[in-house]
């Protein structure tokens, strides 16, 4: 990646021998690998067995999980927060694992719509929950720094599975907990 970043920098007309740019290709390659570290993880590795027996059948929600991702169309960041809820059926997921699942999928080249679905489907599969709801709200640099340059726009996406999709009262409880 280092050589590719060097070619990109030269491609915009910069001099790689300029003192501020001498080590930039290597730093950029390391940063890009870090920002996309989700490719080296699996859901099984992230969860690491942290699924615990529980009699709870009430909604569990983790709110305001910050996320950072790169838009797969422009390689520019989008930054926001995820709200994840599920209704357990015999087992609960370790609290930090919800945030780690969000991070794993966010740290890949993404579109927000797919990120939302990936998180919901993974939580559903891992926990066998009767329902899962995920809402993500994010600001996209590809819309703020270029193109239409709208600084105050926020994109919101949702994925509702099981009882969150089929039961209006479950969906309303989730949405009311977000306020």
Shape, per Cα inertia axes: elongated
The residue-averaged pLDDT reads 97
Strand content: 25-35%
Low-confidence stretches: none
> Which second-level CATH architecture of the largest domain applies?
2-Layer Sandwich
Assign the CATH topology of the largest domain: GTP Cyclohydrolase I, domain 2
What Rg is obtained from the alpha carbons, in whole angstroms? 19 Å
- Which CATH first-tier class of the largest domain would you pick? Alpha Beta
Topology summary:
Elements: H1 2-11, H2 24-35, H3 43-47, E1 51-53, E2 60-71, E3 77-87, E4 91-93, H4 95-106, E5 109-110, H5 112-127, E6 131-140, H6 141-144, E7 155-162, H7 163-166, H8 168-178
Parallel strand pairs: 2-5
Antiparallel strand pairs: 1-4, 2-3, 3-6, 6-7
Helix pairs in contact: 1-2, 4-5
Quickly describe the structure.
By secondary structure, the protein is α+β, with helices and mostly antiparallel strands. Helix content is 41%, strand content 27%.
How would you describe what is shown here?
The chain has 179 residues and is an alpha+beta fold. It folds into 2 domains: 2-35, no CATH class; 49-178, GTP cyclohydrolase I, C-terminal domain/NADPH-dependent 7-cyano-7-deazaguanine reductase, N-terminal domain (GTP Cyclohydrolase I, domain 2, 2-Layer Sandwich), CATH 3.30.1130.10. Helix content is 41%, strand content 27%. The protein has helices spanning 2-11, 24-35, 43-47, 95-106, 112-127, 141-144, 163-166, 168-178; strands spanning 51-53, 60-71, 77-87, 91-93, 109-110, 131-140, 155-162. The strands form 2 sheets. Strands 5-2-3-6-7 form a 5-stranded mixed beta sheet, sandwiched between helices. Strands 1-4 form a two-stranded antiparallel ribbon. The protein is elongated and about 65 Å long. The mean pLDDT is 97.
